[in-house]
Write a structure and sequence with these properties.
Oligomer: single chain
Distance between the termini: 67 Å
Structural class: mainly alpha
Largest sheet: 2 strands, antiparallel
Strand order of the largest sheet: 1-2
Radius of gyration: 22 Å
Order of helices and strands: EEHHHHHHHHHHHHHHHHHHHHH
């Protein structure tokens, strides 16, 4: 068999097809194992096929992010039309067995997502050049505030012009879109709405949920589109966030010696990387618990504390070099092998097409799009001022504020082919989301009565 021929998931397509038939047959007759074993197999089959379609479809490949966008929306469409009900025809008394298994594996407490994000945060931060991390971090928060300001400005202006209302647009559309998703954004925001007497939490959620879903979709599409349209070398860093002059570019690159060590992958290193990344993740939850006890009025997600801790370890050169290499290798393994499977889970479990369709109107769509465009432009403009490439600043500090948190970060960065910027995306979603909750509290106490 020609090993250089067409491959899927790294395998000759014929072999991939044989194993895929086995997985699909097990799903159809209702014996696909529940949990990790069966769900990984099923998600890899669909993720690989849809990823290949997306990466080979001309317009989608060039302007919409290729495989990532096709996987997410393709799985969302299949779920919406109950395509996967066909897989439960042979399951007596239960027509949702397959989807229940995937949701149980993927959704509760973000089990697979947390595992994936932990590897990406730990490996991508520890894999950075230390000097680059130190130079970039102090400039990032101004870009986030630039994104918030311009997103609110664009949304508010259109709310005034369209007759929707400035306050209504800011509080019910721009605020939840910029809030870091559902769990860390819209849900706590709904509690703030209720605590201020503006409306009940249930009413707030029912209004904000479509905005979050549409904002997430817009952010994914813009992430894939803008990196292709903006090609100037002055504006697009092709994955590099910070601009560097010729004199200091070399010192901010990974040295050939370090790259050689990274390329020397072994299975023990992968195990160390798994252990260290999940330990950092556990530490994030310890700090989040302590913070919640000491400062209950301001919630900061465990991801944020993990980012801060890993970044400090990197900035102060605390961990041995070989541990950093192990975490980087584990991150590469997870990213290259399980990203498509993750996209399948996002499309099935988090993309609510029924919500998007039911709330769809031209004005509503324009306000959501303008919020996301404002987020991108605000971060890009401030990013350029502080020495970032505007495209990368706009994607991370902007679109990763206007998406749905952790799931949205992966989707946006995959569409933009910028997964190596995950640490900055997580700063936007988690710390940026905490900033939005504070802003929301102030805005609701001042403007809530005007809704």
């Amino acid at each position: 068999m020609n090993e250089n021929g067409f491959k899927l998931f790294g395998l000759p397509w014929q072999i991939f097809a044989i194993f895929s038939v086995i997985v699909l047959l097990a799903a159809i007759v209702g014996v696909l194992p529940a949990g990790m074993a069966g769900c990984f197999a099923f998600m890899i089959v669909f993720g690989t096929i849809l990823n290949e379609i997306g990466n080979r479809t001309p317009f989608v490949k060039t302007y919409l992010g290729g495989g990532a966008i096709i996987i997410i929306f393709g799985m969302g469409i299949l779920r919406y039309f109950n395509f996967f009900g066909l897989f439960d025809l042979f399951v007596e008394g239960n027509t949702e067995t397959l989807m229940s298994n995937i949701e149980t594996f993927f959704k509760p407490t973000g089990a697979f997502l947390d595992f994936y994000i932990a590897a990406l945060i730990c490996g991508s931060i520890l894999g950075m050049n230390r000097k680059l991390l130190v130079k970039a971090a102090g400039r990032y928060f101004p870009a986030i505030f630039g994104a918030i300001f311009l997103a609110f400005l664009f949304a508010g202006l259109y709310g005034a012009v369209s007759g929707f209302g400035v306050v209504k647009c800011l509080l019910l559309i721009a605020l939840p879109i910029m809030g870091g998703g559902m769990g860390a954004g819209a849900i706590p925001l709904s509690k703030i709405f209720e605590s201020t007497g503006t409306m009940t939490a249930e009413e707030a959620i029912s209004i904000m949920n479509p905005a979050v879903a549409i904002g997430n979709a817009c952010s994914i599409v813009l992430g894939g589109l803008l990196v292709k349209l903006i090609k100037s070398k002055e504006l697009n860093g092709n994955g590099s966030l910070m601009k560097t002059g010729v004199a200091d570019a070399a010192e901010l690159e990974i040295s050939p010696e370090m790259q050689a060590k990274r390329d020397n992958v072994n299975v023990v290193n992968l195990g160390i990387g798994l252990f260290v990344s999940t330990s950092f993740f556990a530490w994030g939850y310890i700090v989040a618990k302590l913070w919640g006890t000491l400062v209950p009025s301001v919630s900061i997600h465990a991801y944020a504390w993990m980012i801060i801790t890993v970044a400090l370890c990197k900035a102060f050169d605390i961990l041995p070099e070989f541990v950093e290499i192990c975490c980087y290798q584990w991150f590469q393994f997870i990213m290259k092998n399980l990203t498509t499977a993750l996209m399948v889970g996002i499309g099935l479990c988090y993309l609510s097409l029924d919500v998007v369709i039911s709330s769809f109107s031209l004005n509503y769509l324009i306000m959501c799009i303008l919020t996301c465009i404002g987020a991108f432009l605000g971060a890009a403009l401030v990013g350029k001022f502080v020495g970032f490439y505007p495209v990368e600043a706009g994607v991370t500090a902007g679109l990763c504020m206007s998406n749905m948190g952790g799931t949205g970060d992966v989707a946006v960065l995959s569409a933009a082919d910028r997964l190596e910027l995950m640490p900055f995306a997580q700063i936007s979603s988690r710390l940026g989301g905490a900033i939005i909750l504070i802003i929301g509290s102030i805005m609701l106490s001042v403007l809530g009565s005007m809704l």
